[in-house]
Structure formats: structure tokens, C-alpha cells
């Protein structure tokens, strides 16, 4: 058969690779493949090459031959972040084309290998690759790893994610899976609570069945597939990537990641559509039949009775109530807590917040404690791991607003083959939660009975005798691994419990335990090695798990579930304390029963796990299990090889005996009833026994003495009468004391293990460049106005601007009053412009040099963009990479809310950076947008240190960034979840050196400036950072200390005692700082750098940049504490290229003039040609110059390579008139298919009309004016049913009117705070995180409407009655249009939509208004509950019906008035 022949070809291809490898012909000396099969099939041909796409037909003559025909073609071209391409890294394209990232790759590969190890076939079958029966058996059994001498391994982490996905997909299609079935299994949709599947339970059952067998290959992906029998496409469950398709009258289907790629006549198109999250389309190549999402999935799902199989075989463990009985008395519980590493803070902060409010602890100020391997205090193994996170090449996702696509459900039991579907695959235990209580453990135990399923179980104790000493841990690990293998292999155990529970105090006294993370990792990897891992599930029963990070580590290294018996015992202990009960009675804690408190704790853990998954862009905990998405920091090779195989640990560290010693050192000295837990001070500094913290009140006092700051002098006390505003002379001796206190402090950072080693003699300090030159490299951290008070934020900006450095706005926007240099300062240093500041000078500027664009888009307006000298894209934040910024509600004052276009008092948690920067291509698009709106400003991209950042940095450089900032994971913050502060992000030393090395090796270093920040405090820190490649340096927390911060660590509570981080008026008056204080600090740091340079013999600072050869390990420092004996930094430095001779990277590229990189800004290429043409049009220039209020009209044609069209025009207008825009109307008529970000940043006076279609991000950052998108008049499709604009349209809009005669994609009006928008239907997540404006949808919408919506109004036309189940009711409410004001607003907007677009749908509604208005739902958040359109509380109040311009005369109509004919025309007229 053809299928048998295909299997033979497939197996022969993999067999040949083994033979070639045996002959040393497979790989070249550099590791790249010498032989590669581009195509080896009788059904498909793959044309590929390491060439640009346009060159391919010149290489393959078939592609020039008109007689050569095919039923289908898949064409894929990628944005290469790898500048040295290799065949193994290229996409095979054998069965699937993949545009995206697989975030779960490590786990997916590990589990495929585990499956392969568990299969076996006779050798004679494996050697006969021609027999159809034999080939069928081979692919069905998927045996590769057992016989590497016969078949090439299926998966390999040295290949790309696309190559590994293609390999598994291909094997599944060879093992009787149809291609769409294979893809549905590998990349499942978010089927739970999906209204679109209500009528198709068979599809839900399919996903339930396969979800138990196979871990989802999760990540943002558009997948196009073909096995030669059918062709199709599918999106991942989040639907971030665009996928548009058109069907023409001759039946041809065109699917493109961007519309407009293929030039089609709209009159020939009968249907236009898009793929939504998790959706699929398919074309049968034999019959020509087109099948939409439901049709193809229902067909596949109906092939087996999945629902019956599940009902008969699966056993569900729902969440059950918690018991009240205590396992230990208080004394024993406290002893157990101490022995497992609990501290007082863990109960007083984490347990109290988690059990009391169901949320993780929020904290502030970053992580200034030593990394675990350098700490003199004992740490659990969890603290040696840092969570990895997504940035640039793949996005994090939003667990708060898009949690609908996420799940923490897990399974236990034996997993059957994914290649051979049978009823046995349904026989699993399904867990609603991975966090189990005692009752659920009992329920699982009952399933061992034959009548309940017969799931065999065994419990293995991980405790061992204390007298065995530290070396006893190795034998104990071997023993539990041997026992696990025996139980699974010989006992048929399907649920394996690893338990460290001691029966009583007596057992606690004589035994210790293998840390559960070490134990589960060792057992997990041993079972994989023995081919048994798929036969059992592992439950960790432990007293050493309480933080969300702990659970993430346990699951990430193999656990299926966790029974945290001691954490639940601690909740009971805490709940019963008199203090807890009194706090509940006083209202300081929400009143909760004991059962509710334990349920709260579990909820907090589950939500914390979702947050950790989301950082990496993973939706399902089952895909996170075993994925090992961590980097180890301070673990030695022995530990990694035993329990954490495949985990990166770059500096070595502790061995197993060290871990055992550290574990034993946590044991309390006695079990006395009066014994208390130690307060280790890991989070809050405490005297004497507590952990060292670099930023302390003592350190602040030393620095204040040095720079002449008295915290008692402020506007609230004596500043106005004190000489020089109370600023004392700076004290050089005081700075020496400050510096020495840091040098003699306990070890904390990697750089503390380094020393300098010069290659030349010292020179006089007079020969070193002046401090004025050095200080131009200084920057302040991106601390927002809102996190900081006005006084603190403006003082920092003025200070760093004075020294020629770069201040940073942070993500909160900036008051326009700061855009003008001061000229009204009196002799006392006061200015009427900034009456709350002191120590000012004429010529000072409070305008931040760097204006930040973050995911919340707070304060991002055209004027904000054109007044920045550099525009920074916040991809990640050091304190919480993979998450958005957070501003607690009490800090959102009226002033802050006005700048951020949000609601006063409402907490702001920005989405993670994924809406328009979810991939390298889309980051490139945002960079393009910013270069368009402000061509003179460089664009910086802020990243956080992590393994792999070198590849990311190369991609960012190729995406036309001018500056790359590397932040350390210890960065400060105004508010963040505690586990994020402590456990995510690596030290900047590692990220900076990797990024510099990768950029230099790939010839990209001269394209970007490298900036670094994160815990930088002294000149020594800066010198080390420079030698590792940095050219600019950011000060965060230490700069706050320099203006008066006393390290109270209450930034998140709005109670800062010196007004640095408070918005309370009475506290802000206590702000003691002036610009002079901060300047004094910068001067001291610069002088310290000069002294170091003189000692090293260097006169110019740039000469030490990238000179890692001037650094060496400090062996005396490494020997300071016992557990650092295994630390080695040699490998860390060996990877940094030698740049001693070639210093060309310090200048811009020759193509850009070769000047200083800081003076060079990349310029958009041909993709901005249309924008330039519009701006240079004489009528346009005249209209902007004169602005006499008249009308100007111009027309242009557009294609989809014309990007950010109108952004340059918006920039020209904003530079001249600010956000108010033009008084007249500039009518811009455009025809064709527009590229991404069409109409970005439009302003009042701009009226942009597109006849055709557009891609993603239409109206991004729109501030005013009008955008209208309509199809061509002779279009052959129904506009209301067809896609006309893409995803994330009007993202971050602050005003303007938008009309689309057609459907929009996902995330329509995300973060809209002022635009009035109409479309004829949307995808998922409409109005997400909206804070203002009005949205009208005249057609069906996807699910999750109004998630995170805190302002604005939505109107949704519900013709089929399915709207209610699509609303996210966590915040918003919905009702019919019940008020006259609401009906008036809606009708006027719909009328204007009809007049602007000629919409047939709008006309139908208007013609039958009295009947159709009853089919609309009105969605509103609490902040709008008393508005006139929601509740007729204020008769006669004005109702806004347009946001085209800020003038109320143009935008409002009176409520209740009968409208005259003039008012029924466009209200803006």
C-alpha cells in the first residue's frame, strides 16, 4: 500500500542516519550535519534551503516549470534569531510548518523519551523495514531509544522545537493517526467551559481522553500541516498569532499569517475568515471538501467512543473538604516545621496571606539577600532554583484575565501509548487539583480496591537515620530509587507515594529526610532510565512545601501531585491562635472557618502555580510537569546528575553531602513546648541572627551621611527656612565608610567572588577621563510615577538630567508639564511649576530622557512618545519577569489615575507583555512603530537575565533595537508577589556576559548599546559590569536611597514614612530629597570609578568595556563559607570572546556612519516608504503647518508590507501641537491591504479611511481622530460575516472613533481607555483590561468578554442568544439597554457607523430599532454603575457618543432631548 511504502521510506531515512553516523559521515567537525534529507516521501516534496525565500525558485528548477502542478503548497519563511543557521535547527517541514514557539519543549522531549524507553520489539522486526506488517508494528510501538544502533532518535534537544514537533507529528501520522487527529492531540484547544463546544460533547471527550495520554505541546503557534492526504491549519489555545483565510469562487482556499500576502480580487472572494484560539480548518485533498473547526474536529472525535471509555474507566478525585483533626500537637508541629526549614516569616507572611485571603504575599523592594549558595544561613534546595520565563521569542500569558485557557488538573496512573488508541488509555485517576488533602489521599487509596478500579499503590519513606551523617543521603537516595523500580516493575504500582512524614516526635528525633525535591527528581529520572516512568504517577507527601515556588519545583521535576501535610497542619495551627481569631474579629482578616482557611491556602497555591506557568507561556500544569523549566544556581554536578538531569547549573556548587548537612542544620535544638521557630529574615531584615540584606536602614544612614541628607528635613519640617534647603556638604570620608561597609559585608552576589587583574601599570588619576564623561553613562531605573511619589520621581529625573545621564519615566506616563525646561526658579530654588520640589535651578529638566512603553500602555500618548529622547519597551522586569507591573489601589490617586487613563483607587496589574510583543516579529513591529512616530528617538528593549538571553539579544538587535537593557533578577519593585521577587530571574552578571558574547560572536554588537541594572550600588559594580560588556548603567533602589529612602519596605502599602513611595499628601510632605543629594551620590560613584581605572592603568572608560580578561576569581572570597567550595566561575568567563584587540564594536556600523552608538538611531526601511510619502505630500504638509481648521483630502494605495502607516504623520502633528492634534480635518483615503499597526497613534484632526482590509494592531495607541475600514464596494462576501481587521486592534487607545465594516480578531480594544469603537463581531477577550471608552459589537463575539475591565461601556448585539455565557463576570455586570441615555448613546453610535461604512448590518438594526435594541446587552464595570447610560440617576446629564476629539462641544448630545435632523448626522460635525 501507499501507506506501507511511506512507512518504509520513513524508517529507512532514520536508519540511514545511524549508518552514516557510524561511518562519521553524518556531522561535520563543527557539529553541523553533513547529510540532511530535505525530502524523502512519495506523497509530498519539500523544497528548502538556507537561502532567502525569493532565491528558492532559482535553486529548485521545478519551481520555474509551468508544467509542474500540485493540489497544495505550504510556504514558510522565518525570522531567524540564529545568525549562524544549521540544518538541524531549520524546520523539517515534512508534515508541519510551525510559526511560533513550543514553551514546553524540554518536558515534551523528556516524556517522549520516557515513552520510548518503555517499549520493546523483536530485533527481526526492527531490521526488516520493508514488510508492511513490520513497519506498522515499529511505528505503533515507537521504539527508538532502546536500539539506537538501528534507528535515529526521534527527538533531540539539540534540534529546534519545530523539528522535534515535526518528528512526533510525523510518527503519529505514520501510526494510523490522521493528520488533523495528531495535531488535535498534540496541540489541544482550551475545551473546558468553551461555549462553542456546547453542542459537540464528542469533541470535549476527545480532548479529555488524549489529555490523559499526552502532555500538550504548549506555546504560541500557528501550525499548517499536510500528510499528502489533507491540508489544514490550526492555532494554539491562546490564539496570539494571526491566521487569516479567504475562499474564492473557484473553491481555492488561501490561508496566510497576514492578509494581503496573495493578491486576490475581492469580487472573487466568497468568504473571509480567521482562525481563533485552538481552531482548525482542513481541506480534503482527494474530495476537495473544506471543513471548518467544528466539522473536522467532530469527524475526528466521532471515530471512537471516547465518552463511554472515560465514563467506564476514569476515576475522578474532585476537591473534597479538609479535615479539622490535628496530626501533631503544637510543640511537635513547631519542631517539624523547623526541621523542614520553615521560619517565622513563612507563617507570619505567607501562610497568613494565603490562608487568610487566598492570595500570595505581595512585597516590595526586590531581592537584596544573598543567593542561596553564598548565604551563611541554611536554605532548602528549592532556593537553588530560579524559574525560567518567556521573553521576546515567546510570550508569557495572562493568568488573571485569560485564566479561562489554563488548568492545574493532573492525572495519576499508567499512561498507554499515544500511537495506538484503545479503551485502556482512559484508565487513569483524574485530579481536579495537584494539591491534595488528607481526605483526597484516602479517596485515592480506596481506588486500590478491585471494585474501585484496582489502581495499585505503594508508599516509600524518604526518611533515614540521623546517625548516618551527611554521607548517608547517597545510600538513602539509592534505596528509594531501587524500591521505586521494584514496586513499579514487579508490583504493578500505578500510584507511588514518596513520603517524609514522621509518625511522632520520637521518629523526628532520630531521623532526617531526603529533601523532597531531591527525592522526586532522583526517582523520576531513575524510572525513566528503567523504562517505567509511564507506568506510574508520583505523589509527594511532604512537610517541606508551603510556597508556590516549592510546588512548581516539585511538579517541574516529576511529581504528579503533592500532599502538603505540614502546610495544612500549619494552617490549622495558625487558625487556632488567639491572634488570628482577634484579627478576624477586628476585620483585619476576613472571617473564615478552618475548612475555608485551608481551601484559601489551596486556592492561593493553585493561582500561584498558574502565575508561574504563565510566565513561561504555559497553560496546563500537565505540560509543566517534568519540563524542568528552571535554572540551577549553586548546585554541583553530582546533585544535578542525580536528580535534575538536563538542568543548567553554570557555576557549580553544593554536593549531596552539603545538602544533607544544610538540611540537618535546620533542625531545632529541642522539642520544648516553648520553642519557637527561627526568624531567618529571608524577606525582612532582622538584627543579629537574620539573613544579610545589602539594602538596609544602616546602609541608607551611611549613604545619607556621605551625600549630606538629613531625613528629618522636609517640607513638613524646616526645609523652607534651612540654609541650602538643609543639604549638608558631601563627605568623601563618609562615602568611603559606605563603600567599605559593602566590601566587608557577607557574600551576596556573583560579582563578590571576583577581583581585578590588570595587564598594565597604574597611572595618575589626573590622566583618567573626568567624572562628567563617566556620568553620561548613568541611568535611573524604570520606576514609575505612581510607584514613586511626584517628589521622588521628578527629583530623580532632574538629578540624572543634570549630570547628563538618562532618566526613565517607568510605565506610568508623564505629566506634559515636565516637557519644558525650567525658567521660573527663584533664588531659593523654588519653582511655581513644581511647588512641591526644592533645590531647583533654571535650566533643570524634569522630562525623563527615556519614556517607557509597557504592556499596560499607561500614559502612552502621541505627545508622550514624541517628547521622549529614547523609547523603552518593557519586555520584562527584574523583580517579576514574565509578569506585568502592579500598582496597589490606594496608590492610584486622582492625579495618578488621570495620567494612566484609569480609575482612581482601582488596583492596576498590567498584563504580561504578550498582546503586541508575543514574538520576535511582533517586537520588531513595535520597534518599527516607535521608530515611525519618533524617528529621532532610539528604541531600547528591557530584558531580564536568563539562560538563552544571548539568542534573544541577537533577535532584538536584528529587530532594529538601538539599546538592549539586561536587568538582574534581584531588581527592585513597588509591588510584586513575594515568590516572584525571590525565585525568578538570574543575576545580571550571567545575562550580561551571555548577551555581550552572543552579540559579539554574531557580528551584531556594533548595532546596539548594552545597558545593565539590578542592585548596582558602587563604582566597583560598574567596573565589573563594564568588563562584562555593559556601556551604560542603571541605578534603582540605591538612587531612591540617595533621595531619602530609609528602606522601610512598605512601598506596596502606600505608607512610606519619608514620602518616597507614597501618594498620601501628608507623607509626601516628609520627602527629604533634592536633586543635589542624588548628584552628590553620582559624583562619588564616578570618582570611585576613576580611582579604579587609574589603579588598572586605563584612562578612558570605553577601554575597559568588554574586557573580561581584566577579571579573575577571588579564591579568598570563595573560601569564606563552606558550601561555596564547589563554586567555579572559570567556565563562566571562558565563553566571553576576547575583544582586547578589536574594539570596533564600540562604534556604530560603517553603514550607519561609524560614529558613537549613543548618537545613532536605526531608521525604518521600505516598510515606512508610504508613511514618508504621506508626510511629504504638499497638501498634508500645508495642512499641518497652517492648521486653519479646513478640510484636506489625499489618497494613496497600500500593500501589506507598508507598516505603521500614519504613525509618522501622527508624530509630525504631535511634535507641533501635542495631544490636541489638528483643528481642521486631514482626510487620508487609502486603498488595499494594510500591514500591521495601520493608523497607529492617530490624533484629533486625522480622519483615516481604508477601503480594503487590515492586519493586526489597527489603531494601536489611537488618541483621537477617526479610522474607518470597509471592504471594496464589489466584494463578493458578506461583510458582517467576514474578517476585515486583525488581532489586538485599538490596543492602548486613549481616544478617537473607530468603525470596521466587518469582524475583528482577538483582544479587540484591549486596554482601551477612551476610544469609541464599532465592529461587526470579534474573537475572544473583547474589552480585556479596558478602562474607558465605548465598544459596540454588531455580531457574535468569542468568550471572556470584559475580563479585567474596570472602566468604559460595551454594547453587544446578541442575535442567537449565546452572549451571556461568553462574559467574564469576575468584575463586570451586564444588562439589557434599560435607560434612555444608553439607548440614545447606542443608537447614535450605530447611526454614525452606518453613515461611515454603509454597513448592511447597521442598516438592518436601525430599520427595526425598536425591536433590535432589545437584542443588545450592555456590559459595564462597577465604576460605571451610576453613570447615566447604565442607571438613570442624573436626568439631563450629557451623554458622550464620540471620542473623535477632546472638545465636549463636538462629542456630546443632551440626554432626553428629541433629536433634530442635524443631530442625527455625525455628531462630530
Task: Give an account of the 3D structure.
- Helices cover 31% and strands 14% of the residues.
- Residues 143-148 and 1447-1469 have low confidence and may be disordered.
- It contains 47 helices and 45 strands.
- The protein is globular, with a radius of gyration of 32 Å.
- A hairpin with a 5-residue loop joins strand 7 (280-284) and strand 8.
- Helix 11 packs across helix 18, helix 12 packs across helix 18 (565-576) and helix 43 packs antiparallel against helix 44 (1400-1407).
- The strands form twelve sheets. It has a ten-stranded mixed β-sheet, sandwiched between helices. The protein has a seven-stranded parallel β-sheet with strand order 23-32-31-29-28-25-24. A five-stranded antiparallel β-sheet has the order 1-2-3-7-8.
Based on helices, strands and strand pairing, what is the structural class?
alpha/beta
Order of strands in the sheet with most strands: 34-35-36-37-38-39-40-41-43-42
Cα Rg: 32 Å
Distance between the termini: 72 Å
Give a quick account of the main beta sheet: strands, pairing sense, barrel closure.
10 strands, mixed
Regarding quaternary structure, how should these chains be classified? single chain
- Range of strand content: 5-15%
Task: Name the average pLDDT.
Answer: 91
Shape: globular
How many β-strands, per DSSP?
A: 45
Fraction in helix:
25-40%
Which stretches are low in confidence, meaning pLDDT under 50 for 5 or more residues running? 143-148, 1447-1469
Q: Note the total helix count.
A: 47
Amino acid at each position: 500500500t501507499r501507506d506501507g511504502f511511506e512507512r518504509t521510506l520513513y524508517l529507512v531515512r532514520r536508519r540511514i542516519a545511524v549508518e552514516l553516523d557510524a561511518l562519521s559521515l553524518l556531522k561535520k567537525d563543527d557539529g553541523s550535519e553533513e547529510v540532511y534529507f530535505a525530502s524523502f516521501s512519495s506523497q509530498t516534496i519539500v523544497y528548502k534551503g538556507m537561502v532567502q525565500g525569493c532565491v528558492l525558485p532559482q535553486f529548485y528548477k521545478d519551481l520555474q516549470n509551468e508544467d509542474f502542478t500540485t493540489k497544495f503548497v505550504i510556504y514558510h519563511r522565518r525570522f531567524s534569531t540564529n545568525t549562524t543557521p544549521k540544518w538541524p535547527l531549520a524546520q523539517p517541514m515534512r508534515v508541519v510548518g510551525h510559526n511560533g514557539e513550543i514553551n514546553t519543549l524540554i518536558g515534551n522531549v523528556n516524556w517522549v523519551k520516557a515513552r520510548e524507553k518503555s517499549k520493546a520489539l523483536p530485533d527481526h522486526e526492527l531490521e526488516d523495514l520493508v514488510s508492511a506488517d513490520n513497519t506498522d508494528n515499529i511505528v505503533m510501538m515507537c521504539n527508538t531509544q532502546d536500539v539506537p544502533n538501528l534507528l535515529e532518535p526521534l527527538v533531540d534537544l539539540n534540534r529546534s522545537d519545530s523539528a522535534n514537533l515535526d518528528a512526533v507529528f510525523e510518527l503519529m501520522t505514520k501510526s494510523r493517526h490522521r493528520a488533523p487527529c495528531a495535531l488535535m492531540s498534540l496541540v489541544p484547544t482550551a475545551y473546558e467551559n468553551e461555549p462553542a463546544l456546547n453542542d459537540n460533547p464528542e469533541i470535549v471527550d476527545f480532548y479529555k481522553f488524549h489529555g490523559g495520554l499526552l502532555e500538550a505541546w504548549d506555546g504560541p503557534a500557528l501550525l499548517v500541516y499536510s500528510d499528502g492526504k489533507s491540508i489544514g491549519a490550526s492555532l494554539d489555545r491562546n490564539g496570539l498569532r494571526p491566521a487569516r483565510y479567504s475562499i474564492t469562487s473557484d473553491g481555492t482556499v488561501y490561508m496566510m499569517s497576514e492578509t494581503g500576502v496573495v493578491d486576490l480580487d475581492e469580487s472573487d472572494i466568497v468568504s473571509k475568515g480567521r482562525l481563533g484560539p485552538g481552531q482548525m480548518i482542513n481541506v480534503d485533498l482527494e474530495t476537495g471538501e473544506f471543513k471548518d473547526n467544528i466539522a473536522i474536529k467532530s469527524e475526528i472525535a466521532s471515530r471512537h467512543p471516547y465518552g463511554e471509555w472515560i465514563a467506564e474507566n476514569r476515576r475522578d478525585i474532585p476537591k473534597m473538604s479538609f479535615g479539622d483533626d490535628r496530626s501533631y500537637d503544637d510543640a511537635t508541629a513547631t519542631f517539624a516545621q523547623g526541621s523542614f526549614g520553615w521560619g517565622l516569616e513563612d507563617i507570619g507572611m505567607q501562610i497568613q496571606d494565603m490562608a487568610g485571603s487566598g492570595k500570595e504575599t505581595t512585597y516590595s523592594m526586590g531581592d537584596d539577600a544573598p543567593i542561596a549558595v553564598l548565604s551563611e544561613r541554611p536554605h532548602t534546595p528549592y532556593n537553588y532554583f530560579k524559574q525560567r520565563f518567556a521573553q521576546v521569542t515567546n510570550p508569557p500569558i495572562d493568568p488573571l484575565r485569560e485564566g479561562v485557557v489554563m488548568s492545574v488538573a493532573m492525572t495519576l496512573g499508567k499512561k498507554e501509548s499515544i500511537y495506538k488508541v484503545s479503551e485502556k488509555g482512559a484508565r487513569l485517576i483524574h485530579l481536579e487539583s495537584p494539591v491534595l488533602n488528607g481526605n483526597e489521599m484516602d479517596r485515592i487509596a480506596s481506588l486500590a480496591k478491585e471494585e474501585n478500579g484496582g489502581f495499585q499503590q505503594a508508599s516509600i519513606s524518604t526518611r533515614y537515620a540521623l546517625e548516618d551523617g551527611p554521607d548517608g543521603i547517597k545510600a538513602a537516595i539509592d534505596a528509594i530509587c531501587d524500591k521505586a523500580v521494584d514496586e513499579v516493575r514487579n508490583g504493578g504500582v500505578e500510584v507511588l507515594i514518596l513520603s517524609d512524614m514522621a509518625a511522632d516526635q520520637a521518629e523526628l528525633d532520630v531521623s532526617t529526610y531526603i529533601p523532597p525535591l531531591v527525592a522526586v527528581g532522583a526517582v523520576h529520572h531513575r524510572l525513566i532510565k528503567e523504562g517505567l516512568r509511564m507506568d506510574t504517577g508520583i505523589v509527594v507527601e511532604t512537610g517541606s512545601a508551603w510556597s508556590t515556588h516549592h510546588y512548581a519545583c516539585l511538579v517541574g521535576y516529576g511529581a504528579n501531585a503533592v500532599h502538603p501535610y505540614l502546610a495544612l497542619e500549619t494552617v490549622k495551627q495558625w487558625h487556632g491562635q488567639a491572634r488570628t481569631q482577634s484579627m478576624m474579629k477586628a476585620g483585619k482578616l476576613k472571617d473564615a472557618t478552618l475548612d475555608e482557611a485551608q481551601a484559601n491556602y489551596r486556592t492561593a497555591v493553585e493561582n500561584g502555580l498558574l502565575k508561574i506557568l504563565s510566565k513561561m507561556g504555559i497553560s496546563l500544569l500537565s505540560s509543566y510537569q517534568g519540563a524542568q523549566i528552571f535554572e540551577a544556581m549553586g548546585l554541583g554536578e553530582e546533585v544535578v546528575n542525580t536528580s535534575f538531569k538536563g538542568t543548567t547549573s553554570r557555576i557549580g556548587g553544593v554536593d549531596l553531602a552539603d545538602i544533607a548537612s544544610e538540611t540537618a542544620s535546620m533542625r531545632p535544638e529541642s522539642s520544648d513546648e516553648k520553642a519557637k521557630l527561627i526568624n531567618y529574615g529571608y524577606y525582612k531584615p532582622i538584627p543579629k541572627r537574620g539573613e544579610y540584606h545589602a539594602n538596609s536602614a544602616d546602609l541608607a544612614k551611611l549613604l545619607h551621611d556621605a551625600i549630606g541628607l538629613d531625613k528629618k528635613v522636609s517640607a513638613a519640617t524646616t526645609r523652607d527656612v534651612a540654609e541650602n534647603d538643609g543639604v549638608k556638604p558631601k563627605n568623601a570620608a563618609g562615602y568611603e565608610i559606605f563603600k567599605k561597609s559593602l566590601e566587608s559585608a557577607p557574600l551576596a552576589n556573583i560579582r563578590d567572588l571576583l577581583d581585578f587583574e590588570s595587564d598594565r601599570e597604574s597611572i595618575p588619576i589626573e590622566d583618567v577621563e573626568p567624572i562628567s564623561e563617566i556620568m553620561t553613562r548613568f541611568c535611573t531605573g524604570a520606576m514609575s510615577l505612581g510607584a514613586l511619589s511626584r517628589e521622588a520621581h521628578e527629583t530623580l529625573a532632574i538629578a540624572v538630567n543634570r549630570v547628563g545621564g538618562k532618566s526613565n519615566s517607568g510605565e506610568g506616563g508623564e505629566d506634559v508639564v515636565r516637557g519644558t525646561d525650567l525658567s521660573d526658579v527663584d533664588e531659593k530654588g523654588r519653582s511655581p511649576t513644581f511647588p512641591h520640589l526644592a533645590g531647583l535651578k533654571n535650566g533643570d529638566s524634569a522630562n525623563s530622557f527615556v519614556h517607557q512603553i509597557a504592556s499596560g500602555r499607561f500614559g502612552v500618548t502621541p505627545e508622550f512618545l514624541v517628547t521622549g529622547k529614547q523609547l523603552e519597551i518593557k519586555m520584562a522586569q527584574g523583580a517579576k519577569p514574565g509578569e506585568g507591573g502592579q500598582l496597589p489601589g490606594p496608590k492610584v490617586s486622582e492625579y495618578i489615575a488621570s495620567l494612566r487613563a484609569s480609575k482612581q483607587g482601582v488596583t492596576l496589574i498590567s498584563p504580561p507583555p504578550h498582546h503586541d510583543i508575543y514574538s520576535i516579529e511582533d517586537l520588531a513591529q513595535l520597534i518599527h512603530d516607535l521608530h515611525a512616530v519618533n524617528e529621532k528617538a532610539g528604541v531600547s528593549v528591557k530584558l531580564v537575565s536568563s539562560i538563552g538571553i544571548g539568542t534573544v539579544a541577537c533577535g532584538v538587535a536584528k529587530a532594529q533595537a538601538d539599546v538592549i537593557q539586561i536587568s538582574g533578577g534581584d531588581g527592585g519593585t513597588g509591588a510584586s508577589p513575594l515568590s516572584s521577587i525571590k525565585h525568578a530571574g538570574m543575576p545580571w552578571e550571567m545575562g550580561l556576559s551571555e548577551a555581550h558574547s552572543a552579540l559579539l560572536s554574531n557580528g551584531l554588537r556594533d548595532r546596539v548599546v548594552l545597558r545593565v541594572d539590578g542592585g548596582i550600588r558602587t563604582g566597583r559594580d560598574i567596573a565589573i559590569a563594564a568588563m562584562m560588556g555593559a556601556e551604560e548603567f542603571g541605578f534603582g533602589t540605591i538612587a531612591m536611597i540617595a533621595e531619602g529612602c530609609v528602606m522601610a519596605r512598605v512601598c506596596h502599602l502606600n505608607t512610606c514614612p519619608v514620602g518616597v513611595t507614597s501618594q498620601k499628601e501628608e507623607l509626601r510632605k516628609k520627602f527629604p530629597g533634592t536633586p543635589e543629594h542624588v548628584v552628590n551620590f553620582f559624583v562619588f560613584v564616578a570618582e570611585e570609578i576613576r580611582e579604579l581605572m587609574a589603579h588598572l592603568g586605563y584612562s578612558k572608560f570605553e577601554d575597559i568595556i568588554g574586557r573580561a580578561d581584566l577579571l579573575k576569581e577571588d579564591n579568598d572570597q570563595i573560601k569564606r563559607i563552606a558550601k561555596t567550595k564547589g563554586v567555579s566561575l572559570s567556565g563562566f568567563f571562558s565563553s566571553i570572546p576576547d575583544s582586547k584587540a578589536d574594539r570596533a564594536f564600540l562604534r556604530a556600523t560603517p553603514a550607519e556612519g561609524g560614529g558613537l552608538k549613543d548618537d545613532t538611531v536605526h531608521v525604518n526601511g521600505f516598510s515606512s516608504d508610504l508613511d514618508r510619502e504621506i508626510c511629504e505630500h504638499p497638501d498634508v504638509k500645508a495642512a499641518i503647518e497652517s492648521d486653519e481648521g479646513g478640510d484636506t483630502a489625499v489618497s494613496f494605495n497600500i500593500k501589506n508590507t507598508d507598516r505603521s502607516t500614519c504613525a509618522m504623520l501622527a508624530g509630525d502633528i504631535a511634535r507641533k501641537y501635542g495631544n490636541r492634534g489638528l483643528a481642521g480635518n486631514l482626510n487620508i483615503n487609502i486603498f488595499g491591504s494594510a500591514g500591521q499597526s495601520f493608523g497607529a497613534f492617530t490624533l484629533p484632526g486625522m480622519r483615516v479611511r481604508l477601503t480594503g482590509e487590515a492586519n493586526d494592531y489597527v489603531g494601536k495607541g489611537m488618541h483621537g481622530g477617526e479610522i474607518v475600514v470597509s471592504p471594496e464596494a464589489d466584494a463578493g462576501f458578506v461583510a458582517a460575516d467576514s474578517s476585515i481587521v486583525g488581532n489586538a486592534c485599538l490596543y492602548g487607545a486613549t481616544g478617537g472613533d473607530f468603525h470596521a465594516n466587518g469582524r475583528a480578531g482577538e483582544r479587540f480594544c484591549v486596554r482601551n481607555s477612551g476610544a469609541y469603537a464599532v465592529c461587526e463581531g470579534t474573537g475572544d477577550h473583547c474589552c480585556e483590561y479596558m478602562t474607558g471608552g465605548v465598544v459596540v459589537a454588531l455580531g457574535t463575539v468569542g468568550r471572556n468578554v470584559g475580563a479585567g475591565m474596570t472602566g468604559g461601556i460595551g454594547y453587544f448585539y446578541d442575535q442567537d442568544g449565546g452572549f451571556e455565557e461568553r462574559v467574564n463576570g469576575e468584575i463586570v455586570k451586564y444588562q439589557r439597554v434599560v435607560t434612555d441615555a444608553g439607548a440614545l448613546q447606542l443608537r447614535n453610535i450605530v447611526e454614525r457607523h452606518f453613515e461611515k461604512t454603509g454597513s448592511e448590518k447597521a442598516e438592518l438594526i436601525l430599520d427595526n430599532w425598536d425591536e433590535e435594541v432589545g437584542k443588545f446587552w450592555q456590559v459595564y464595570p462597577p465604576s460605571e454603575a451610576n453613570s447615566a447610560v447604565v442607571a438613570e440617576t442624573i436626568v439631563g446629564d450629557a451623554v458622550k457618543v464620540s471620542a473623535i476629539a477632546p472638545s465636549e462641544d463636538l462629542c456630546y448630545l443632551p440626554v432626553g432631548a428629541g433629536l433634530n435632523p442635524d443631530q442625527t448626522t455625525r455628531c462630530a460635525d
